[in-house]
Write a structure and sequence with these properties.
The chain has 314 residues and is of the alpha+beta class. It is built from nine helices and ten strands.
Length: 314
């Protein structure tokens, strides 16, 4: 009688555990932060160094790129080139905060390529002889590269997954910053915002990936439950090798169906109980098909005894 009680209690426990997982999967995303910002600093400039005055107010010290990149391991070249190519191909759109407007392809190209006229020799007078000066040389082409990027700012949404125990950061925008230098090359402004991009919402693909992880976990849980239930049934009924394999499959399908019932009828207790009752009946019928007459008689006797015991308790 005690063994039978163990089996029935184990099946009920599996039912309860899967119910908990069903509720967790339904409300598995917990919002930790709606909109937070992450700043990623870079080594930059012609010398590819990082001024430390932004962090410790020491204007004299600088950090060599190799040392900085050892502490902050980002592939700046890949980040910059990927985003620029995406904007130029029309897959992403670039914006400016001053004013907060979308940049046209022409305007974006003007950010990427500028013409410096500050070092061009000037004539003493204009061609028509009037006062004033005009350039006598060719403007210097200056192209914005990854080396010019001083930092990134990411706007993020952070969610915690209560099933997989993973933290998801959804980046909505990436803002790029550069520096400004005077005619002698001395940097007087370290982080000047140049443009930002809005990333596409990938919630659908993330949900697919998360669902796959959850399915994998639930299959593992169902397998664990099936192994435990099969072992207990074997102790009671002494399965042969083939019966043990079939019993495992029956217990495995039972555990998966319990989860499906719990998920489907999470907000309707009556419908859930009806569905679980039907699942229990299928389990009993499928189990009966693999039992010998002697095993079936023993199993039915144990169930009947358990029912009588429950009546006495209540």
């Amino acid at each position: 009688m005690k063994k039978n009680a163990v089996v029935l209690m184990l099946l009920a426990l599996a039912n309860c555990n899967l119910n908990i997982k069903a509720q967790e999967s339904k409300n598995r995303k917990v919002l930790w932060a709606e909109n937070v910002q992450t700043i990623i600093p870079f080594a930059y400039g012609a010398g590819n160094i990082r001024d430390t005055f932004a962090w410790n107010h020491n204007f004299k010290e600088t950090i060599i790129s190799s040392n900085w990149n050892a502490a902050f391991q980002y592939d700046k070249e890949k980040i910059f080139s990927t985003i620029v190519k995406a904007v130029l191909s029309g897959k992403l759109k670039a914006y400016t905060n001053c004013p907060n407007e979308e940049l046209t392809p022409k305007e974006f190209n003007k950010i990427l390529v500028q013409w410096d006229t500050s070092k061009i020799p000037m004539s003493a007078m204009t061609k028509d002889g009037s006062d004033g000066q005009i350039p006598t040389g060719t403007p210097i082409r200056k192209e914005l590269t990854a080396a010019d990027i001083t930092q990134l700012k990411l706007n993020e949404k952070i969610e915690f997954d209560t099933i997989t125990y993973t933290l998801t950061k959804k980046v909505s925008t990436i803002t790029f910053f550069t520096y400004e230098a005077n005619e002698t090359g001395e940097i007087f402004r370290q982080n000047k915002e140049i443009f930002y991009v809005k990333l596409k919402d990938i919630s659908a693909s993330e949900d697919e990936e998360r669902t796959a992880l959850i399915t994998k976990q639930l299959n593992a849980d169902s397998e664990e439950s099936a192994n435990a239930n099969t072992l207990k049934l074997d102790e009671l009924l002494n399965f042969n090798t083939e019966q043990g394999k079939l019993a495992f499959q029956i217990c495995f399908q039972y555990a998966k169906q319990v989860y499906a019932d719990e998920c489907k009828f999470a907000n309707n207790n009556k419908a859930m109980m009806d569905a679980l009752k039907h699942t229990d009946i299928n389990f009993e019928n499928n189990l009966a098909k693999i039992l010998t007459a002697e095993q079936k008689k023993k199993y039915d006797g144990l169930k009947l005894g358990e029912k009588e015991k429950l009546k006495t308790v209540h």
